[in-house]
Amino acid sequence: MFSSFWRSIDRFSVQHFKCVISELQKVKVVNEHNREYVVDLLQSIVEIVTYGDRQDPLIFECFMEHQVLADFVRILKTNENSKIDAPLLQYLSIMIQNMDSEQAIYYCFSNGYINNIISHPYKFDGGDLASYYVSFLRAISGKINGDTLCLLVKVHGDAVVSFPLYTEALRFAYHEEKMIQTAIRSLVLNIYNVSDDMVYQFILTPPVSEYFSDLVHRLRDLCFCLDTILYDKGEIEIQKRKNGLILQSDKIVDELYYFKDILSVGKPRLTKLVTENLLNGLVFPALFSLLVSKDNDVS
């Protein structure tokens, strides 16, 4: 309904951009009646900002001056079951992915707006929202570096006390969808590659560091499952047993490659913790089990 209005010839002008922002700021609540209109506004803003980042600095200055990201946060908070979350995250992902200038990225990560959007209490009810959310997180991780990472953490004294991008991402580490798992692992590796000592102190300290022991326990469970299939004395069809062995082996290989990627980051503290978890959670228990089994056979 409103698409043709917002697709006018001069839609990339600063004047038109201000009009779109003004319309968005007039929205007090998002519901099923105005959802499509708000989606059109969000799409127009992202398209204009993406254009301005590359072609017209005045557009992004306008974006900063009017604190449009604050309105994105407000739209999320005034949402009345309109399912505006998914398109908002989708358009934000597109905007962040297409940003080239350091100024634009630095601004977007400043002021806590991105962290507020990350930490918003979304209702993941089994729909597509989780995919859009994880894509949003991954888009952010693709733009972080040693200079911008500090904008996404909360520091008290000399310690990082909050890092929503990392901790919220880990909630989806074992999601049922393989694509989401893969995206989270890519995000995590991006963070490991650019983190400084303060961030690593946060990552490698409980309860956040429990992620690594959970990874090892997951690998151990997969190994036990493979062992069970291999030595099952029940009457399992040969093809079914073969398929089970291949499936479990593939899962184990995926986990081992992920551990390899983590260790390849080359951070001594990270390598030490991951190695300790592998030894204490997988290698030593497996060796102990073999020794006990051997003693039982001898006796």
Describe this structure in words.
- The protein is mostly helical and 299 residues long.
- The protein has 3 domains: 1-121; 131-196, no CATH class; 204-299.
- It has 15 helices and 2 strands.
- It has helices at residues 3-6, 14-26, 35-55, 57-65, 68-77, 85-97, 102-109, 113-119, 129-141, 164-170, 178-194, 197-203, 210-231, 238-264, 268-298; strands at residues 154-156, 159-162.
- A two-stranded antiparallel sheet has the order 1-2.
- β1 (154-156) and β2 (159-162) form a beta hairpin.
- The longest helix is centred in the last third of the chain and has 31 residues, at 268-298.
- The protein is elongated.
- It starts with a helix and ends with a helix.
- The relative contact order is 0.06.
- The model has no long low-confidence stretch (mean pLDDT 92).
Which of globular, elongated, flat, extended, rod-shaped describes the shape?
A: elongated
Roughly what percent helix?
A: 55-70%
Largest sheet: 2 strands, antiparallel
Strand content: under 5%
Keywords: Autophagy
Domain FPL: 42-192
Protein name: FPL domain-containing protein
Pfam families: FPL
Summarize the structure.
The protein has helices at 3-6, 14-26, 35-55, 57-65, 68-77, 85-97, 102-109, 113-119, 129-141, 164-170, 178-194, 197-203, 210-231, 238-264, 268-298; strands at 154-156, 159-162. By secondary structure, it is mostly helical.
